[in-house]
Design brief:
Blueprint (H helix, E strand, L loop, with lengths): L4 E10 L2 E11 L4 E5 L6 H8 L7 E6 L2 E2 L4 H7 E4 L11 H11 L4 H14 L15 H13 L5 E5 L7 H16 L3 E6 L2 H7 L2 E6 L2 E6 L1 H8 L2 E6 L6 H11 L5 E7 L5 E6 L5 H11 L6 E5 L3 H9 L3 H11 L2 H9 L1
Parallel strand pairs: 3-8, 3-9, 6-7, 7-8
Antiparallel strand pairs: 1-2, 1-4, 4-5, 9-10, 11-13, 11-14, 12-13
Helix pairs in contact: 3-4, 8-11
Length: about 350
């Protein structure tokens, strides 16, 4: 059986900006596959290339064995795409919008009516079906967008940040619906920078940083690769670099410490990977005290997907988000979105 999605050595430039450097991943039929990474990592560009909305500079793209580049029309019939920004005509009712979507996919009238009724029921939109979408809440708009993406019963549903801006109740409703789709055999490819969302939903995950896949596996596998518990240590609220280096040199020699990373973006805090059975916190504080160094704050926890990202890049996802926000060029982004 062909992979639901196959991407090999994808590259995409926008002028001098290298949006995607080298993305390769394989999504199997009937799984939820998560793309995790900060804004600007290349997630959306990867999806746009897969969904024929952007032309890659190099690489191979397939959906259910169909080449996206050689047979874009056939590939589009196999895909359902829900963009991050909801695009609904506010003067249409929910039902009218779905009828328009059905016509665009040339669905027979009887089939279209059956599927529209089914989608409205599944997504809890029946009571809102004949009201104008301009009156919908953000959560209702996202559900209607999902219904439109699923109306033609695609093999693969592609979702770009599907719960951004939604309240908790709406997010949970979307999560439950995606799990239901998976149980019915639909493949879901989802991008997110919400760690808990990917951890809760995805069967497998690819972490993307600066246009490159840096890790792939199940959430459990990725966290196990970190190798132990995570200890976050702040010597001072804003630790001088030389003190952080001194502490790193000292702490990495402790027998239970596997790795020490200095996180410059968070005031030169130290992130340690330690054996989970060790009495790490007590021993670390004693060692710091003997070295004449204070302890401003210290905590220990099981690894998370953020720890996976930290181990691979030396920064957390939040750090990467803030860095991207600080270097983002709004004019360049507008040009990119218009292409």
């Amino acid at each position: 059986m062909a992979s639901a999605v196959l991407i090999e050595k994808l590259q995409k430039h926008y002028g001098s900006v290298e949006a995607v450097k080298d993305v390769s991943l394989q999504v199997e039929p009937g799984e939820i596959f998560g793309l995790l990474g900060p804004n600007g990592a290349g997630k959306t560009t990867t999806l746009r290339c897969l969904c024929t909305l952007a032309t890659p500079d190099a690489g191979k793209l397939e959906v259910s064995g169909v080449s996206v580049l050689d047979n874009p029309k056939t590939a589009r019939q196999l895909l359902g795409y829900v963009a991050q920004e909801v695009a609904l005509d506010k003067v249409l009712t929910g039902r009218e919008l779905l009828q328009l979507q059905a016509a665009l996919y040339h669905l027979p009238r009887g089939t279209a009516k059956e599927r529209i009724d089914q989608m409205l029921s599944l997504l809890g939109l029946a009571d809102w079906a004949d009201k104008k979408t301009g009156t919908y809440s953000g959560g209702l708009k996202k559900r209607l967008d999902l219904a439109a993406g699923l109306l033609h019963q695609p093999d693969v549903l592609v979702l770009d940040e599907p719960t951004v801006g939604l309240d908790i109740e709406s997010r949970v409703a979307v999560w439950d619906f995606l799990r239901q789709l998976r149980s019915n055999g639909t493949t879901v490819l989802i991008t997110s920078h919400y760690l808990e969302e990917v951890d809760a939903l995805a069967d497998r995950v690819a972490i993307i940083d600066k246009g490159v896949v840096i890790a792939t596996g199940t959430p459990s596998e990725l966290k196990d690769r970190v190798g132990g518990d995570r200890v976050t240590l702040r010597i001072r609220e804003f630790t001088p670099p030389e003190e952080a280096e001194t502490a790193k040199t000292m702490l990495k020699d402790l027998p239970f410490v596997q790795e020490v990373i200095i996180n410059e973006a968070q005031g030169n805090s130290l992130n340690l990977v330690v054996d989970p059975q060790s009495e790490a916190l007590i021993t670390i504080q004693q060692a710091l005290k003997e070295a004449g160094l204070p302890t401003f704050g210290i905590s220990q926890a099981r690894p998370s997907l953020d720890d996976v990202y930290l181990a691979a890049t030396g920064k957390t996802l939040l750090d990467a988000e803030l860095a991207a926000a600080g270097t983002r060029d709004p004019k360049a982004e507008r040009k990119q979105n218009m292409r």
